[in-house]
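From the methods appendix. Each design record in this collection lists the tokenized structure first, followed by the designed amino acid sequence. Records were kept in a plain field format so they could be parsed without special tools. The example shown here is representative of the layout used throughout.

RECORD:
FOLD TOKENS (68 positions):
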């Protein structure tokens, strides 16, 4: 996954962008997924997780190029 646990990390500068991200309106809601996203969002904002930008970009490019 694209999230790496980083104990003691204080990278909350971009946390606001993550906290306000929304799914497109036409995406069906999955309560389990929503709960997990809320949990990860909170941990990210508290500095318990950081996002690995290389892993995220690799997954985005792969999905874009493969259509998956």
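DESIGN:
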């Amino acid at each position: 996954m694209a999230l790496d646990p980083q104990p003691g990390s204080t990278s909350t500068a971009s946390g606001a962008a993550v906290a306000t991200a929304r799914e497109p309106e036409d995406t069906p809601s999955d309560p389990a997924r929503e709960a997990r996203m809320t949990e990860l969002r909170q941990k990210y904002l508290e500095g318990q997780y950081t996002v690995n930008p290389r892993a995220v970009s690799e997954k985005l490019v792969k999905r874009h190029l493969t259509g998956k």
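APPENDIX NOTE: Residues 10-22+29-62 form one domain.
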